[in-house]
Amino acid sequence: MSHPDRLVPGDDAPPFTLTDDAGDQVALGDLLGTKVVVYFYPAAMTPGCTKQACDFTESLGSLRSAGYEVVGISPDKPEKLAKFRAKEDLGIRLLSDPDKETMKAWSAFGEKTMYGKTVQGVIRSTFVVGEDGRIEVAQYNVKATGHVAKLRRDLGLA
Questions:
Q1: Bridge partners for 95 per DSSP
Q2: Which residues pair with 37 in a beta bridge?
Q3: pLDDT per residue over 91-108, tens digit each?
Q4: What does the alpha-carbon distance between residue 61 and residue 59 come to, in Å, rounded to a whole number?
Q5: If we measure between CA atoms, which residue out of 3, 10, 32, 7 comes closest to residue 106?
Q6: String of b and e for 33-62 (b: at least 16 CB within 10 Å)?
Q7: What's the rounded Cα separation, in Å, for the pair 146 and 131?
Q8: What pLDDT is recorded for position 1?
Q9: Which of 36, 66, 107, 146 has the greatest count of CB atoms below 10 A from its CB?
Q10: Average pLDDT over residues 118-128
C-alpha cells in the first residue's frame, strides 16, 4: 500500500512549534544547525513507548556526540509528559501535540492496523532531519523494541 503523502528523504521537514514537558515552546527551526531525530509515538507510559524512550535516552550520549539531538512527540499533554520523564528518568525532549496537527503534517497520524482492525491513530515513526531542515531518514511503522539500535546502525553509529 503506497502512501503518497508520506515524507521521503530530500523533503523539507514540516515546521512545528510545540510545548515540551516543562511548558516551554520548542520550534524545529530552533534546533536546526544540528541533526535532529524526530520521533512520533502513540502514548507516554505505555510499555512499547516507554521502552523506545528509554532506548533513546540510553543512546543520547552517543547520538549527541555524533551531532544529533532527539525529540519525541506524542499527543499527551505536557503534564503527563513531565510525569513520564520523571518516572523513567528520560533525557530526551518530549513535545506535546494534542491536536495532532504536527503528526498529520509529518504523515505520522492516520490509518493503521491494530489487532487486525484498521483504526485511526499515531503511526510510530522516526525521522532524521539534517542541519538544513531536510528529511534525511523517514521510517514509518517502526517497532518500539530494537528500533533505536537499528537506527544507530542505519546512521553508522552502532
A1: 20, 73
A2: 70, 128
A3: 999 999 999 999 999 999
A4: 6
A5: 7
A6: eebbbbbbbbebeeeebbbbbbbbbebbee
A7: 26
A8: 47
A9: 36
A10: 92
For residue 54, indicate whether it is catalytic.
no
Single out the catalytic residue among 7, 37, 49, 95.
Answer: 49
**The three three-digit cell numbers of residue 135, written as one number:** 528529511
C-alpha span between 8 and 136 (Å, rounded): 8
**Whether residue 25 has pLDDT greater than 80:** yes
Quote the CA–CA distance of 57 and 71 in Å, as a whole number: 10
- Give the separation between CA 125 and CA 139, rounded to whole angstroms: 6
Q: Which three cell numbers stand for residue 33?
A: 544547525
Q: Cell numbers of 41, please? A: 509515538
What DSSP character marks residue 14?
P
CA distance 111 to 44: 20
Q: Is the pLDDT of residue 123 over 70?
A: yes
The grid coordinates of residue 129 equal 532531519
Cα angle 85-50-138, degrees, rounded to a multiple of 5: 105
Alpha carbon of 15 to those of 24, 51, 111, 118: distances in Å?
17, 27, 23, 29
